[in-house]
């Protein structure tokens, strides 16, 4: 379980700035009230969808999509992120607690395509070096290009042998 903390307008702007110019399926793991998915869709990242387990937040996200005129264009699904196959995702947004990051890093490396980009908010992935970062303090976000992360992880594994 991860406590819900809504993203600030600056966190949303920084996240989308690190995804600017990209294409392909965009997912928010633990999408909360849907604000990041809505903004991703507005900025042309499609398809855009969120995975969320909290039924109240799921309902709020769907309402916000409907109110914005995106009903049927954006999906919010009640699914456990550990049971979702991410192999067709090119942009992944993760605003989750630090304790979730190490096992999630393993899942992302195993499933994401080489051209995928992961943007983490609030807390970086502890064992990955970011391709870029934007913002300061609580508004800071980190972007990780999976091909580079894989190269780094493989290099570390070879050094330790």
TrEMBL record:
Alphabetically sorted, this entry's keywords are: Methyltransferase, S-adenosyl-L-methionine, Transferase
Which SUPFAM superfamilies does this UniProt record tie to the protein?
Answer: S-adenosyl-L-methionine-dependent methyltransferases
Q: Which GO terms describe its biological process?
A: methylation; regulation of mitochondrial ATP synthesis coupled proton transport
Listed GO MF terms: protein-lysine N-methyltransferase activity
Q: In its keyword annotation, does this UniProt entry include Transferase?
A: yes
Q: Which InterPro entries match?
A: FAM173A/B (IPR026170), SAM-dependent_MTases_sf (IPR029063)
Q: Does the keyword S-adenosyl-L-methionine apply?
A: yes
**Gene Ontology cellular component?**
mitochondrion
Source taxon at top rank = Eukaryota
UniProt family annotation? Belongs to the ANT/ATPSC lysine N-methyltransferase family.
User: Which PANTHER family does this chain map to?
Assistant: ADENINE NUCLEOTIDE TRANSLOCASE LYSINE N-METHYLTRANSFERASE (PTHR13610:SF5), METHYLTRANSFERASE DOMAIN-CONTAINING PROTEIN (PTHR13610)
The entry's protein name is: F173A methyltransferase
Instruction: State the gene name recorded for this protein.
Output: Fam173a
